[in-house]
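Example 9 (inverse folding). The structure is encoded as follows.
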């Protein structure tokens, strides 16, 4: 009888292994292998048609001496720091407004989601067309008002500002929807108790709403930082890194190294330098999610 149970238990173990095997294969092929390859190439001199040669930390030293790479680091900090904080702060404020009862709220919510629902490439190209120096509708409007043309994408200050404006415009509705869902999850009884105790709307916001949504806001911030740091298409299609490679971020400078200059080693090194930061953020997100799950 014991031997029969052991045999059944052994078959169950093998079934479990068979269920896990597809995941292990996918993880190995699509996650582990690319990551390990990036790390390997970051320590080698790699050129197409030539066997990789180990060079130690030389690729990292070259990157830190490259002015374009250093500029991309600064741009990434600006892009993430301003883009994420402004976007999420506005998203919370708009979610608080949309959480109120007013006539036509469903229509306003639907219209507000349109930027996020729009195709990214189409909306980016529309922005570029509107901001064209000679044929853009924005400069045409300025000229009709008696002002001169502005090279919106031809100078660093305006080009970087437009990248930030587009990023906030595009992804603001998504985070607003997330915060709105979080606000609707707050029990109405808590608000009613606060009103009975004589709390003002500002006090309710300060002592009830914000503490209740604090955990969600932190998780959304961490996730948004991860996504924004890896954003490639916005900068690439809006400015292409220009003018003069001044608006490159880490994602686009790595692409430039790899596919413009064929420097796959420097591209890999730029990724490996960013990898520890991304891992720390991912660990924070997982811990926050686990803490929220334990609280429930």
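The amino acid assigned to each position is listed next.
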């Amino acid at each position: 009888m014991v031997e029969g149970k052991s045999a059944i238990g052994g078959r169950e173990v093998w079934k479990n292994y068979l269920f896990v095997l597809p995941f292990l294969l996918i993880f190995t092929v699509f996650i582990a292998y690319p990551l390990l390859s990036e790390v390997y190439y970051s320590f080698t001199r790699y050129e197409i048609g030539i066997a990789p040669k180990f060079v130690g930390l030389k690729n990292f030293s070259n990157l830190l001496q490259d002015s374009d790479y250093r500029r991309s680091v600064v741009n990434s900090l600006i892009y993430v720091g301003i883009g994420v904080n402004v976007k999420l702060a506005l998203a919370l404020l708009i979610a608080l407004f949309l959480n109120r009862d007013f006539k036509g709220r469903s229509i306003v919510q639907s219209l507000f989601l349109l930027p996020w629902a729009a195709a990214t490439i189409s909306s980016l190209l529309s922005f570029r067309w509107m901001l064209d120096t000679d044929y853009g509708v924005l400069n045409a409007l300025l000229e009709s008002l008696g002002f001169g043309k502005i090279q919106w994408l031809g100078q660093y200050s305006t080009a970087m500002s437009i990248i930030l404006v587009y990023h906030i415009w595009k992804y603001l509705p998504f985070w607003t929807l997330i915060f709105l869902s979080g606000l609707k999850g707050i029990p109405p009884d808590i608000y009613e108790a606060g009103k009975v105790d004589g709390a003002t709307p500002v006090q309710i916001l300060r002592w009830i709403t914000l503490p209740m949504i604090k955990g969600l806001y932190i998780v959304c911030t961490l996730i948004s930082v991860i996504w924004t740091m890896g954003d490639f298409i916005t900068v690439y299609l809006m400015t292409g890194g220009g003018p003069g490679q001044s608006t490159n971020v880490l994602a686009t400078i790595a692409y430039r190294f790899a596919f413009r200059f064929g420097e796959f080693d420097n591209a890999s090194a730029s990724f490996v330098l960013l990898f520890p930061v991304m891992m720390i953020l991912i660990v924070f997100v997982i811990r926050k999610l686990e803490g929220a799950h334990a609280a429930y």
